Amino acid sequence: MAFDYDLLVIGAGSGGLAAAERATTYGARVAIAELAAVGGTCVNHGCVPERLLNYAASFADVCSDAAGYGWNTAPGSFSWTKFVQAKNQQIEKLHQIHQRHLDSGKIAVISGQAVFVDAHTLQVGEQSVTAAKILISVGAEWDQLPIPGAEHLITSRELFNLPELPQRLAIIGDNYIGVKSASSLNSLGSQVFQVISSDSILADCDHELASAVQAGLARRGVSFRCHSQLLKVERSSAGLELTLSDRDETLSVDVVVAATQRHPKTQGLRLEKAGVQLTAQGTVAADEYSRTTQPNIFAIGDCTSRTSLTPVAIASGRAMADTEFGPQPHAVDYNLIPVSVGFQPEAATVGLSEAEARVQFGEAVQCYRSEIRPLSQKLTPRHEPGLLKLVVEAQSQRVVGAHLIGEHATEIIQCLAIAMRLGVTKPQLNQTMGLHPSIAEELINL
């Protein structure tokens, strides 16, 4: 049977784009079906606007610290409107860059909702399209909380396009998306309340790292409502009134951001028509080569059970294209994924937490830690301790986890992840010449 395309990708997010562009390098005829803007969650309302918001927030510390270094600084003000305009302009530039890449690879973009007709056929809007192989890369979206007044909640998707900076903001959820949003908006001047169901944020991280990030946010003014759940939201003349499970009085805010659970955006695809099965958790079932229960159909990114991070989706997409269209089939190693989990204070992690290491290695675990005050703060009134922590498997002395809080934590963790993938040991780090003075030097001297 002759097909319209060798590969049809459903979703023009980071993973779908990476797979499409890689497949064209092998001569494949490729099309992408996309209902919204090119770039997916990461570009449009995820990683990129989130990071730009953090950069905007970081100038509060810069301006405050400058006086200690001899600068005469006048009080400034932040314009949310100008930030949103500049952010939107940058995202539009990224749209144009992606479109140029698609054009150069002669990748067709078909606008509309994709619906499976059979294992090789999709109805995209008014157009019927066939392909030898199909890649599902539709991402995920936030669950709506099943509470009265849920229509008053927004998600991170809407947060970056609010008409004005909220004076009072509640964030429901303890994951790194909620944590990053809380820290940035707090630094910009919002009064932030974070509602979490346990006593600590960042449940998937090393406990010591999570506790230190939470303490840092509290020092900066974020108010935590621990062991609490949102039960009801009502609009009043004072704003939004939140009823929480841990207290009698209501909490009054202007905006409520729900950052709890997400689910794959597979509704409407009619996967059953193509023989594609879901897992018990509702994600698309896929093997190590991203192949679903239908051999010619693949799935990557947040609609699967893989870690929900842009680099994971990109790596999975490229590996799928390499395997199906290139000369060297290979699977992605999903171990040692570096993750940025906080902005202010900046925090990042890679590898096993101390608790995970003790489950895997028992008592043969050594932890090296230090709290430091960065040199950049020594001439300022700001005192924000950093945390350096290495988790080491005692027998081999191999570094199996690294957890950092402090300036440039994300950059340091990214470089350390390379060394850990190559099996770096604690003695090898100690034997490496340090760059003085730097936080990275403190790390290798632990």
Would you summarize the structure shown here?
The protein has 446 residues and is of the alpha/beta class.
What does this structure look like?
The radius of gyration is 24 Å and the shape is globular. It is built from twelve helices and 21 strands. The chain is α/β, with parallel strands linked by helices. Helix 1 (14-24) packs parallel to helix 8 (310-325) and helix 3 (47-66) packs across helix 6 (176-188). Strand 11 and strand 12 (239-244) form a beta hairpin. The strands form five sheets. Strands 1, 2, 3, 4, 5, 6 and 16 form a seven-stranded mixed sheet that branches. Helix content is 32%, strand content 25%. The model has no long low-confidence stretch (mean pLDDT 95). The longest helix is centred in the N-terminal third of the chain and has 25 residues, at 80-104.
Strand content: 15-25%
Question: From the alpha-carbon coordinates, what is the Rg to the nearest angstrom?
Answer: 24 Å
The first-to-last residue Cα distance is: 63 Å
Major sheet size, sense and barrel closure:
7 strands, mixed
The count of helical stretches stands at 12
Averaged pLDDT: 95
Structural class: alpha/beta
General form? globular
Contiguous uncertain segments of 5+ residues: none
The tally of strands reads 21
Share in helix: 25-40%
